[in-house]
Specification:
Number of helices: 14
CATH superfamily of the largest domain: Type I PLP-dependent aspartate aminotransferase-like (Major domain)
Mean pLDDT: 96
CATH class of the largest domain: Alpha Beta
CATH architecture of the largest domain: 3-Layer(aba) Sandwich
Radius of gyration: 21 Å
CATH topology of the largest domain: Aspartate Aminotransferase, domain 2
Length: 392
Amino acid sequence: MSKSSSLNTVFADLPVTIFEAMSQAARDNNAINLGQGFPDDPGPEDIRRAAADASLNGYNQYPSMMGIPELRQAIATHYGHWHGLKLDPMSEVMVTSGGTEALTSAILAVVQPGDEVVCFQPVYDSYLPIIRQAGGIPRLVRLEPPHWRLNEDMLKSVFNSKTKAVLFNNPLNPSAVVYPREDLELLARYCQEFDVIAITDEVWEHVTFDEHKHIPLITIPGMRERTIKVGSAGKIFSLTGWKIGFVCAAPPLLRVAAKVHQFLTFTTAPNLQAAVAYGLGKPDEYFLSMRKDLTRSRDRLTMGLESLGFPVLKSQGTYFLTVDLSPLGLNESDTEFCWRIVKDYKVAAIPVSAFYEQDPVTSVVRFCFAKKDQTLDTALERLSDAVRGRKR
């Protein structure tokens, strides 16, 4: 047996992620990338200048493993203001190198071999490998279009005495749902009944539209001491490359997550932390204006796609909207559709079936609208015949 054949199969057997595959296809085909979720502008100038100033004039050696005090205080103040969530910045807040590292720290802190972890499909691609690396057993719940909502039957089918944790993404990527209080209360009831810890991926918490308001699960009665909340400055400020994540939890949970974080990345660039602390303190109007700008982009792409005959599902949050191809009578799956349009029409999108491990929904495609008007308009021009040219 060669050494390579005995490598860690949790990771060795993973395929290239659909995000990297489609982004590479976009590069290979000189296509507009509406697949991967990043804006095509540089981000807020004042926050970038704050990072530059902190780099030139601030401290550039190892900062505190838990995050610089200014940022931990800013996180606590920010969540207190927006959600009424009272946090002790020194014992209940930690800064990580991005939301994915925050989630990894939380999962490895909670899950032991044999523990079952409830996850909802469509599921973000980092969750399952880390659960399995910890020895956990994912229990998958299938959400369906057009509403992607939770219900009693689906929770009853997966929660049991072996359930250790639930991993819940809200607002949900890729389906762009912002979950209402009744769904959160239902999930909270099961967590309390089965003594389950909730790890909540809430990186899109500020990116909500219309009258939809994000409600952190940790604020639901009975969940304060059993929830690990994850946030992301990259999503809040459209600075995805900065990789600044937040972990908020009661001290007994945060202490163990911090020990995992210590041996993953240990700490995070201090100049970026200082700039994020500045950004979190910006007035409400900044965050409301950001939502208005993204709403306008969402509506521009929605109306454009609908005018071309695409059945668009309403986006309540995130950078994404989805299209359900099933009413169109196309003789292809979502994956086949995405490969066709990137090659033939020079536009990249993501098949939502890639977010399922079992029994996938195969008719829904995700587009990113966090782009400049010209980018969206050019993509729409290229897609003008994508539906008519493929009907049975």
